Amino acid sequence: xxxxxxxxxxxxxxxxxxxxxxxxxxxxxxxxxxxxxxxxxxxxxxxxxxxxxxxxxxxxxxxxxxxxxxxxxxxxxxxxxxxxxxxxxxxxxxxxxxxxxxxxxxxxxxxxxxxxxxxxxxxxxxxxxxxxxxxxxxxxxxxxxxxxxxxxxxxxxxxxxxxxxxxxxxxxxxxxxxxxxxxxxxxxxxxxxxxxxxxxxxxxxxxxxxxxxxxxxxxxxxxxxxxxxxxxxxxxxxxxxxxxxxxxxxxxxxxxxxxxxxxxxxxxxxxxxxxxxxxxxxxxxxxxxxxxxxxxxxxxxxxxxxxxxxxxxxxxxxxxxxxxxxxxxxxxxxxxxxxxxxxxxxxxxxxxxxxxxxxxxxxxxxxxxxxxxxxxxxxxxxxxxxxxxxxxxxxxxxxxxxxxxxxxxxxxxxxxxxxxxxxxxxxxxxxxxxxxxxxxxxxxxxxxxxxxxxxxxxxxxxxxxxxxxxxxxxxxxxxxxxxxxxxxxxxxxxxxxxxxxxxxxxxxxxxxxxxxxxxxxxxxxxxxxxxxxxxxxxxxxxxxxxxxxxxxxxxxxxxxxxxxxxxxxxxxxxxxxxxxxxxxxxxxxxxxxxxxxxxxxxxxxxxxxxxxxxxxxxxxxxxxxxxxxxxxxxxxxxxxxxxxxxxxxxxxxxxxxxxxxxxxxxxxxxxxxxxxxxxxxxxxxxxxxxxxxxxxxxxxxxxxxxxxxxxxxxxxxxxxxxxxxxxxxxxxx
Length: 733
Description:
Elements: H1 2-22, E1 34-41, E2 44-49, E3 57-63, E4 68-73, E5 78-80, E6 88-97, E7 100-101, E8 108-111, E9 119-125, E10 128-133, E11 141-148, E12 156-160, E13 164-167, E14 175-183, E15 189-198, E16 205-212, E17 217-223, E18 230-236, E19 241-246, E20 250-253, E21 261-270, E22 273-274, E23 281-284, E24 294-297, E25 302-306, E26 315-322, E27 327-332, E28 336-340, E29 346-355, E30 358-359, E31 366-369, E32 379-384, E33 387-391, E34 400-406, E35 411-416, E36 420-424, E37 431-440, E38 444-445, E39 452-455, E40 462-468, E41 474-479, E42 486-493, E43 496-502, E44 506-509, E45 517-526, E46 529-530, E47 537-540, E48 547-553, E49 559-564, E50 571-578, E51 581-587, E52 591-594, E53 602-610, E54 616-625, E55 632-639, E56 643-649, E57 657-663, E58 666-670, E59 678-682, E60 688-696, E61 709-714, E62 724-730
Antiparallel strand pairs: 1-2, 2-5, 3-4, 3-6, 6-7, 6-8, 9-10, 10-13, 11-12, 11-14, 14-15, 16-17, 17-20, 18-19, 18-21, 21-22, 21-23, 24-25, 25-28, 26-27, 26-29, 29-30, 29-31, 32-33, 33-36, 34-35, 34-37, 37-38, 37-39, 40-41, 41-44, 42-43, 42-45, 45-46, 45-47, 48-49, 49-52, 50-51, 50-53, 53-54, ...
């Protein structure tokens, strides 16, 4: 297009040259001077200049470095169009006359203003309009204004650097005019854009509902909303959604369901969109007839009618009519009613639901026959610990009786048409829950009959063991599963009868004679009765202890222990014990020799009596001091013509000694002073053989005679000193 224009201008120029050559007397017009060049529209620049005399038109040229655009104008001002927005152009002008055209004027720069933003508008709510646009080249900010399209009211203007803006607090359902433009860094505004947008309407108010319960339909009305073109009514329930639409202020919804709660909302709409739904109004239809009706006797004499809860049922009325013509009813907001009833009757029952809309339709009519009456005057008689006999009077409606005895683990049953039953094979000491149920074919068993409790006699205890302690007390232990039982243990024998009692599992008997045999039994007793005796256990008491325990020292290292044999003792064990060791013998005789005794120390003597079955009685304890040790180194020295000094070395365990000389002419004795180890015998004849024995003397004064004896010969040599000749030891017991 521009190339064609240039060709045309070239041709014109050529013609002008020719004309100039033909009419050389005429000259070209003056070069115009541009006063100012400016842009008010993004695709054009306006140029102003002083008029050139003789010029008939002007040629305006705009160059941006890439393109050249020329425009012929008649006079100032002139406008170059077809330019790019926000672009810097170099502007020149030539004047044209019949004589030709002038040279281009000095250039002047001008820049086109910014392009207008392309607007997208919407109404997100009834009181707001959202304005959005794309970024504009070279724009640093935007100015957006809004006013009512009818010109009423004020203009609201906002500046922003964003590409969107929301005007709020507007009037619902009203048409608004929106104008927007961008500006550059110098604050120069660009082209503006204008559009209209209506706000969406407000939700309808003053909603009225009129429900026709018979036809199950509802009519709705409301106040008209400003700027609304259409209205939609929605009835929403958990299972359905019903609507009606109209351009008016009322409509009707049919085919509503019983027992349903609907949330009613009305919305208005126009070309901007729909309003929010109005505040919801609740519509409750008439309740449906109650279902799942159940009838129970719990307990007998109390008829319980229950049904499933129905939606929108505010309360219920139950009618109960017995087969004798009597009718009662119950009014409740619950789902159960209780009626007094009599066993053996048939009742006819119907249930209705009510709410503000009215009564539900009639549901099913039910009939119910009550259970037979429970037996009365039940008389349980305990026959034994494992058998119970029960009798009662016949009751109305019962065709069969079922008796059960339960202990929590096992159940014993008997069924009979007769009003009595015998329960056998019961457990001892067991609490039974005994119930007699009446039965009929129509209703079955009356399971609410009152039980009775009875406990059988206690079980026989089982003796586990019979033991004896160190104090000859008899401890009897038994096993039993009885509760709160008192046990009596009896030991019976030829020496009499002995007993002990306990509520536990053991007791102790004292004072049973030694050397006796008893038969031990146990019996349990409770409030229910007395058990059979347990199996007997034989009991043998320890043998009786011997009497007359005697300890005699035979030699320095041997003693004899003797006793009198006690009852049923078969053998005995004698024990002699000290810090140096122990000496023991086991014998069936009534004495025992114990050797290896150490002289001069204290011993403890113990004697045990043992029966043929091995029962042992620790019979006696006795302290025994063994005899002092015999002295050593016994020697005789002559003192004068008729005196002898006996000398010895003192031994352990004795502080006193006695000396005896036995000769054919007499017995001579001397006792040394305390602490001395020699003794003098005077007036002893010489020329004789003497047996000398130095004996320890016990604290009791008893002289021990088991020490060895020595034989000495006392000669008469005529000298007053004489000679004492040792002849050796004398062996004597």
